[in-house]
């Protein structure tokens, strides 16, 4: 009797979900589906069926199965997938080009994303990754970035994995995907009826109840079911008569199958001859499809001796040919064989494998896994190999690189002179992937055993950077202080430490940090210049620029940042990667040079993308958003802030989400209302509570404005009490927006805090009185003074302020606020007509900026005067008319068939901004694909 291949059994519901997703993809809608369940439950099988269906539907496919022993090679899984289809997403040339860019993982992923998006413009694409629990780190990062980035493209991701692999690089990616709407298909064991059906198909006979019960030992796991049936049939323990399958003789079921699959496998293997067993043992260690040549080398026998063994194992259904290679029929069989190897044998075989593969031309990277599984302490050769393998991973897959280096450190002899250097490299890589506690532990361990001053400095600097990167600014500043105490520290390292410390002090959550930050920065600049340490000078000048800006000295802020930019341009490289243009943009904005600031940011952002400096990506969006607020374009500002927050999440720099979420909250409060703002603030607060540092004003300001909006004036004042106290030495809020000056006065007055109102007005006057001050700063000072004075005089000052804002022609929201206050002054003075005119103009001004909530407040004031509002239709929230001009531009380009990146290049925006715009367009037009969008655009524009 022979077993017949069983058609897919008992997965109708899952198949229906998959079919639906494929049909949607054909209509241009992408998505992400996760197929999960334990080993042998049928994930691969389901994915195979889905891919066959995809091909029938004419969809393009790209597929790969990750292998346990490939997880060290960066991008292995995804590249395999993208080269697999016909035609493949990446042809040989594209793959080569991509491989050439591997030195910066974000640049590679950028090109990869563009290649996929471009491909999908012409043909919807299914990307299937099976056994994703073994996916290498860079492929996992790619999925993390590309799944959301391609969500508006016709790309469907199918990921199969075993969820018990909680520490796999893919695990957090899947969690995020699910949180963003990916569908989970959890495969359950087959029920009794399913087992019977399986059996019916396999034996072409109806199983009797005893047989079904016996097969129930498989727990409904199809793999075990198959193995069990195979064993029973091989051993002649199933009889088929008159179309019914029965068990033959006495069945000691307990003997057949222990709870693990091992027993089933071992029964199948014990029948094999010794050479066949040897072949399987070596094959299990190699861990992926292998050539006979490799196996013979490892088994230590001539190739010709193995031929018979190969036939035997193929006949037994354990191995099967895969192209020119051989593979296990199922990886579970391989794992079974592997687990049955005695420890020392396994060890020796891995060691042998590393030597043989290396001698056959495999790279250090490709053999590293064997070294990991076989090396012993003090083994110099292995330490060298791991160190060599880790080098190229620094930029490509730092988590994996760190893991190899950690092993190298552990394996190196205690007196090995390379230890500190290996450790400092490991610390850098651990920092990149946010593994702070491992960083600390390693640093402590190495420093305790002693290191020379340079190595010690590198280790300490690594820790300082790691903390800074994670947003733990106070701790970073403290660690820097400790590092600075180290005797024998070189000047260059000292300068670098000081520059990082200066930045950390700026964002350590304290209002009092400015002078210290400034002093550290000044020292970094002086020392860095003497030592020609350009990155330290650039970063130091950036910090000084921020400190000057926060003091309200915008001329100095521009000057410092400009010098930093010049030096970074001259020096390039790591100096350029400090991106001082970020702070130049902000300083220029504070001087009301909005267009110039936008140009600086745009050029800087392009440079950052060229260099692939991912940490900076969210910050460009932040500063763009701030400028858009200044220009009164709140929808665009919201889009930028949202894009920045999304990028920060994708790039795993969530510390930067804090200011972005706070800014989003501030904007949401003006546009959408209290609830939206509250949600965003809660998200920001959670991050702050987890230890992320910030400028205190970032969180306090939107929080206070929210309290004002809900009528909690005293609480709002309390939120900002310290900020008032820090005036006039620290003026972060007026630096961000001159209109914040009058707002501070207004709040203090309402809270009955006249001295603080006076302090705020004096601070605004101080800003206006500085050399190089702007028209808007003068208007703001007058506005603030007017509120303080009240009465007729105040009213006159307000008129002046309004005129000044008008003349400046910038900052329409500040103008509207002045008009609203002017309306109130007029109302108190009894000139109702004037008050009405002011309120109405304020409302229209707010409305034009998208500040719906502010506009409604002004209109309420109109109604309170007994007047009626001109019947203006509320701005539409959905439909074609609701699109902003930026959204319209994006929609048109996408309808022309451009990818997000191509559209971004045309519009001088970042692809993330385009992506966010496009999502808003989809939502407003209630479409979910580029195809539908194109149809609508054609309909509207002919
Ligand atoms: N629903 C099913 N109907 C019929 N056969 C099935 C079914 N599910 C799985 N099989 C068969 O059972 C075996 C194991 O399934 P599969 O390889 O898909 O498991 P898996 O979940 O991918 O396991 P792993 O986690 O080890 O990759 C395969 O031979 C497959 O063809
Ligand atoms: Mg599988």
UniProtKB/TrEMBL annotation:
PROSITE patterns: HTH_LUXR_2. GO terms for biological process: regulation of DNA-templated transcription. InterPro entries: AAA_16 (IPR041664), P-loop_NTPase (IPR027417), Sig_transdc_resp-reg_C-effctor (IPR016032), Tscrpt_reg_LuxR_C (IPR000792), WH-like_DNA-bd_sf (IPR036388). The keyword ATP-binding applies. Residues 876-941 form the HTH luxR-type domain. CDD domains: LuxR_C_like. Pfam families: AAA_16, GerE. One of its GO terms (molecular function) is DNA binding. The keyword Lipid biosynthesis does not apply. Keywords: ATP-binding, Nucleotide-binding. One of its GO terms (cellular component) is cytoplasm. PANTHER family: TESTICULAR SOLUBLE ADENYLYL CYCLASE, TRANSCRIPTIONAL ACTIVATOR DOMAIN. This is Putative regulatory protein. It comes from Streptomyces lincolnensis.
